[in-house]
What does this fold into?
Amino acid sequence: MNIIEKQTGTAFKMKTGQILKVIDPEGEQVSDMVLFNANDRREKLSSGKTLDFESTLLITEGHYLWSNRSHKMMKIVKDTNGRNDFLLAPCSPETFQILYNDPEYHPSCFENLYTHLAEFGITPDDIPTAFNIFMNVQFDLDGRLSVVPPKSKAGDYVLFEAKMDLIVGLTACSAEQSNNYSFKPIHYELI
Ligand SMILES: [Zn+2]
It folds into this structure.
């Protein structure tokens, strides 16, 4: 069991066929995940391709996460919570300035992703829209988006099976609104 402390992140490699278990140990905590092909980092997770090929905005158990080159990167083999987001980019320093009007330094998923992924040669501009595990983004019929508290309860988890050799970036999200205004750790396991 590995622990991502609140408002931090990590990066690691995964082999084809390995299972990643991402756990919300306390409930109501989002984890942003980005993926890169370990053998060619220009191939990476694509929200647009995934929403297109899976024909839904709500990606959960049974769906695949697809790359910008239209290859399967992961399969979601189990999702005990069932609500994730694949529309919004990782929270970044600018998120807090633009959306929250906060001029002070604020930890962010974007910074936590690119600092840990740097050891794999990945730069800030390479970071795609993350798959936001446990994030609860609601949309009205007119298209209006709202970020509401996650539905995840303590112990909820998602199992992802790698369909290629991967570099994975993973966070415990730092945005107040996404996590019902309290920051908690994320646990993960490679099986
Ligand atoms: Zn975040």
Summary: The mean pLDDT is 97. The two ends are 10 Å apart (CA to CA). The helical segments are 47-54, 93-98, 109-117.
